[in-house]
Design a protein that fits this description.
The protein is an alpha/beta fold. Helix content is about 45%, strand content about 15%. Bound molecules: pyridoxal-5'-phosphate (PLP).
Length: about 240
Amino acid sequence: MSNIIENLEHIESNIANACARSRRSQDNVTLVVVTKTASPDTIKEVVRAGYCELGENKAQHLKLVHDEIAQFLDKKQNGENLPTKVRLHMIGHLQRNKVRQVLKMSSFIHSVDTLRLAEEVSRTAEKIKTTPSILIQVNCSKEPQKYGVPVGAAIHLAEQIATMPNVRLAGIMTMGPLTQNEDLIRAGFVRAREIFEDIKTAGMCGNHFKHLSMGMSNDYEIAVEEGATILRIGSAVFR
Ligand SMILES: *Cc1c(COP(=O)(O)O)cnc(C)c1O
């Protein structure tokens, strides 16, 4: 068995244990495999193993993976047993001038953190006749270099996005703080969950609003314990 498959199985079992500890169903936790460090062959191996949710943090990388996967899935005619569809997630900072390119390949954007970007996404989505799901990226760790709307402004941004016609506000995304300190990491995730619950309870977004995207290679078990529904994991898969 290859390293990658072994790594994925190891991650799955850690997720299962974290779900058991927090009495959650693993069905409510989706693993997005972040491919930014991976070669085309290893990405194909992941898809062949049945992982259909892939994440990229740059528009040009998204394009490479998109084209590679499209070609690969075409091979299905040759009898290989491949998934019928792979969903690409845009998880990194998105510039407004890349929105059109990205929306043609991905209908799941985790990193909306300003009103202007949300407006651009909605406007472009209308033009190219798509309705992407978007998450609001919240800066829960208050680290100054990070992207993300400040905690105190998240609900207001959600209210504004909820009125836009061509996007579905699907949840909240956050990145854990860059630290080994578990308490600090957990505190950031708890804050994200509180914002998520506040927006959900306010009832402004309907039942599309159901995702809490948090947890990466170094902190995904804590994220599961604190309610993550989407994990974004790269280096722990491809190392
Ligand atoms: C790279 C990246 C990840 C995955 O990080 P790993 O530590 O490699 O698992 C998750 N989310 C975002 C936004 C990223 O850029």
